[in-house]
C-alpha cells in the first residue's frame, strides 16, 4: 500500500510539474544510424520525428504495417525536412521469425548502429495467443524485445570500435534503449508462485490480465539489467526510459469509460 501511494505521489508530481526538455534537446547526430520500433504512431513516432530533426545519416522506422510506416515517413519528412535515408522496415514483434529477419537485415546491411530504440508495445485486457504460442503482451513487450535487443547487441558493440562518423563529431556511445513504464511498480505479478515461471505466465487460467502489462514492463526492466551486464554490452549504454503518461494509441484496446478517457486526456 505504501509503495502504491509513493508511486502515485511521484507519478502525479512528474505528470503535472516536470518539464520535458522536448525539442530543444540537441546532439550532433551527423553520420549516425538509428532505429525505432513502433515508430508509426505514439511515442515512437514522436521520438523518430525528434531524431529526424537532428539529421542523422540514416533512420529506420521499424513497423508492423508498411502502409502506416510510409505515412509516418512522409509526415516526418514534411515536419523536419529530413535529408538522410529514412527507411521503413517491417517488424512484427508478435512473431519471432519476423524479429530474427529484421535483426538479420540490420546486421547484414548496416555499417553502424548508434541507437536502437525498442519502443513497440501493447496494452490490452484480452487474452490472446501469438502463432508462436505465447500470450501476446508477454511476447511483444518482453520476449521479442529481449530477443531483438540480444540480436542487435553485436552490431551496437561493433559500433563502439568505429571512429566518430565525422571528424568534428563527438565519440558518443551507442545506445540500446527500451521504452519501459513506471507502471511496473504497480504490477502484482500474481503468477510468480508457479514453479515454471514462463509456463505459469503463459497460462490463461493463472493470468491476471489487468496487471499483465505492468508485469511485462517489470520483466523488460529485469531483462535490460541482465543485458546491460553482458560482455557484449561493454561500451554500449543500455537503459530503460519511461515517458510517464502520454497521449498515444496505447489504450486503443482498453475498455475505458468515457470519464476515464477524459481524465487521461486532461493530464497528458
Ligand atoms: N503512452 C503512455 O502513457 C506510455 C507510458 C509508459 C510507457 N509507454 C510505452 O511506450 C511504448 C510506446 O507506446 P505508445 O504509448 O506510443 O503506444 P502506441 O501509440 O499504441 O504505439 C505503439 C507502437 O507499437 C507498435 N506495435 C504494437 N504491436 C506491435 C507488433 N506486434 N510489432 C511491431 N510493432 C508493434 C504499434 O504499431 P501499430 O500502430 O501497427 O499497432 C505502434 O507503432 C510502449 O512500449 C508502451 O508500453 C507508454
UniProtKB/TrEMBL annotation:
Transmembrane region(s): none
Entry superkingdom: Eukaryota
Annotated keywords: Oxidoreductase
Molecular function terms, GO-annotated: oxidoreductase activity
Protein name: NAD(P)-binding protein
Species in which this protein is naturally found: Mycena metata
Amino acid at each position: 500500500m505504501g509503495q502504491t501511494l509513493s508511486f502515485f505521489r511521484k507519478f502525479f508530481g512528474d505528470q503535472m510539474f516536470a518539464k520535458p526538455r522536448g525539442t530543444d534537446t540537441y546532439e550532433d547526430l551527423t553520420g549516425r544510424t538509428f532505429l525505432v520500433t513502433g515508430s508509426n504512431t505514439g511515442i515512437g513516432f514522436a521520438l523518430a520525428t525528434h531524431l529526424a530533426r537532428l539529421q542523422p545519416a540514416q533512420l529506420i522506422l521499424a513497423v508492423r504495417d508498411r502502409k502506416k510506416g510510409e505515412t509516418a515517413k512522409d509526415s516526418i519528412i514534411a515536419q523536419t525536412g529530413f535529408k538522410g535515408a529514412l527507411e521503413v522496415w517491417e517488424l512484427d514483434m508478435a512473431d519471432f521469425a519476423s524479429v530474427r529477419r529484421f535483426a538479420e537485415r540490420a546486421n547484414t546491411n548496416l555499417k553502424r548502429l548508434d541507437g536502437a530504440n525498442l519502443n513497440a508495445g501493447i496494452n490490452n485486457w484480452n487474452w490472446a495467443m501469438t502463432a508462436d504460442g505465447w500470450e501476446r503482451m508477454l511476447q511483444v513487450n518482453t520476449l521479442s524485445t529481449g530477443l531483438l535487443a540480444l540480436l542487435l547487441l553485436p552490431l551496437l558493440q561493433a559500433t563502439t570500435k568505429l571512429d566518430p562518423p565525422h571528424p568534428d563529431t563527438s565519440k558518443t556511445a551507442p545506445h540500446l534503449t527500451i521504452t519501459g513504464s513506471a507502471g511496473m511498480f504497480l504490477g502484482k505479478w500474481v503468477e510468480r508462485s508457479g514453479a515454471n515461471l514462463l509456463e505459469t505466465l503463459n497460462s490463461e487460467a493463472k493470468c491476471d490480465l489487468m496487471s499483465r502489462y505492468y508485469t511485462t514492463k517489470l520483466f523488460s526492466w529485469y531483462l535490460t539489467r541482465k543485458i546491460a551486464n553482458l560482455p557484449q554490452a561493454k561500451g554500449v549504454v543500455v537503459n530503460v526510459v519511461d515517458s510517464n503518461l502520454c497521449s498515444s494509441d496505447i489504450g486503443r484496446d482498453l475498455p475505458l469509460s468515457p470519464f476515464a478517457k477524459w481524465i487521461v486526456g486532461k493530464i497528458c
